[in-house]
Structures are given as C-alpha cells and as structure tokens.
Amino acid sequence: MRPTHIILHHSLTKDSQTVSWGAIRRYHIETLGWDAVGYHFGIELIEDYYEVLLGRMPDTEGAHTLGHNSDSIGICFVGNFDQSEPLPEQWNKGVELVNWLCDIFHIPYHEVYGHRDFASYKSCPGNKFNVEGFRLQLTAADIPKYYNVL
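RE: above sequence
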C-alpha cells in the first residue's frame, strides 16, 4: 500500500484517557473479528506522557475508513473529542507524527482529513477537534524534516 492521505479519528471513549490502546486492540480483534487493530497509529496518555503507539504497519491496508482503507493511514487520538478539545500535548504529538508521515510518504498537508469527511453520519475525530486548525498547524510546524528513506 502506498498511502495518499491521512485520516484522523478519536476513540470516543466515555472515560477518555483511561481506555487503553490494548482495549481498542482487543475490541477490534475479539469483538469485530479483525486480525489486528484497525488504525495504523494511536496517540494515548501513558502515565504522564503522550505516546505514539503502533497498530498496523503504515504500508499495510487499514480497517478504519470504509472505502479508504487501501489508500490512507488511520490515526486514532484516544479520547472523546465530542466532549472536550484534545490537550495541547496530545495535539502536538499528533502534529509531529502527521508531519513526519507526510514527509516520508510525500502526502500533501491538504490530504489530511477527519473521519467525518468520509462518513458524514460521524463526528469523528470529534466536534471539538478542529481538523482545519490541525491542517494549518502542519503547514506552520517548526518540526525538522526527517531523512526520507522511501
């Protein structure tokens, strides 16, 4: 798979930070019957630091957005952003990850979307997650470019 865009999600968990990436993985595998977690990456608070967690390898097809699993990277921000905005630390970790992925896979910033852009019946990545603001921060991010290995 050669991704052409990135799709942002939220876990929509009621208790936000306490539902673990492991719980999401178990739900996807045990309840939905998938072979792995559907997202390529997750961003979760682990103790006192936001971590980027690997779900599927970014060059394999995801299971996160109907009709776009074969051409996109799915990133899940663990939390419910219908209830509150993402904290700056989680937001910034997402900007860093997405900026790096855009650089590695040559994905233009305007090809970063919220899940709701492809599923109008969803709010994902949450009504309080400003996808356009996220995209704008990518273009202004002062993050060093990484060596392109592809």
